Amino acid sequence: MKFDIFFSLSQTEVDGYTPDSKTMFSNFLDQVTLADSLEYKTAWVAETHLSCQTQKKTSLAVVKDFKGEIGVNSDILQLASLVFSKTKNINIGSAIRNILCNGGPIMHAESIKHFLALHELGPYADRQLEIGFAAGRFNFSNAPFGIHPRDEIEITAWHQVKSRAFEEATEIFLRLLLGQEISSTAVPPQFLEASDFRSEKEWLNVRQIAKESSRLLSDDKIQLKKFFNFEIMSLIPLDVSLDKLTLTVGSHDPKVQALCNEFFPTRVFNLSITSADVIEKTHERMRSVFNKEGGIWKRWYMPRTCMVFIDDSPNTNEMTKELRAKEKATRAWENYWRAMEGTLDPDKISSAVDNAVYGSPELVAEKISQKYHPHDRLMLWFDFNNHDSDDVKNSMIVFKEKVAPLIASYGS
Hints:
By secondary structure, the protein is of the alpha/beta class. Helix content is 44%, strand content 14%. The strands form three sheets. Strands 10-9-6-5-3-1-13-11-12 form a nine-stranded parallel beta sheet. A two-stranded antiparallel ribbon has the order 2-4. The protein has a two-stranded antiparallel sheet with strand order 7-8.
């Protein structure tokens, strides 16, 4: 089992306290330096764009009760340079970089290529840049950059349209990273069809709108207008090595997973809440589509989040440690749901706590061994709704010194 670490850098209010951004970054650097010394493999960092506080004033407001910012990292490339300069071995990854916003796939491909060109000349050229990429969680982050509904069809079926926009962006992103000369006409058009919708009623509604506007094709598909239009182009620098770049897509869409691997060996993210059935089906599919040039899919190519709450209080029995860890998890989730929705749903909190891993080091090791495959790769999450940096660091230490050896012993 491989152990990475995940940092949310969420600047939300916890117990009446909201740290400023300087404190957030300072705590992060302190924690990632420790993670490096503890030999965590990759530090995955959440990436967020545009202020959640300001979005409350817009028509696109989705997190109206959130106090603070969901995250303060908006550029993994600048952060990577700083982390590399302060650490010795740890790699850095984005979880997840939105390639639809901030100029779209062209800008993101250009920025990454430029970073890699400089990276291979620097003192940290042996480190890996792990770019996780997706379509972005919130519409308010994408709308200023032209990714928003443009007609009645797109308004009605925006969830599906956004997925197709991401598919379009993904091909552009990957082909430009590879140094290809392309124009938007070389990128296949995107369509909506019945299989894109959860119910026949939803599809028939969109289909009727398309029919009335003469947009329904003879094969019962709706062709979408492109979001990215440009003449033939390529990116500079031209001759950049991609050896130190790893790509992981944050999409459950089998079409997107396969598309990525037509161009570049691309891995897949999955959350801890994803069902075991979906996890295994994804592994099975990726064994057939991964890296069309002949690479072999490995189970650890799917990083999975794992929320951990450890209590290792001295002179305390196992039951008390478990209760304390569970209380900590419950408080964290209560604060999260209060921030996201303004109310507390006991069922949601109970489900979320049950999905987390909590207890003494021995119990945490046992739960992880039962919940995950021995060859899984976990992104351990210790800072969830927790601004106590010393507590976060202590959990990181306890996990590596006490939990990880126990997990390893189970497989020996």
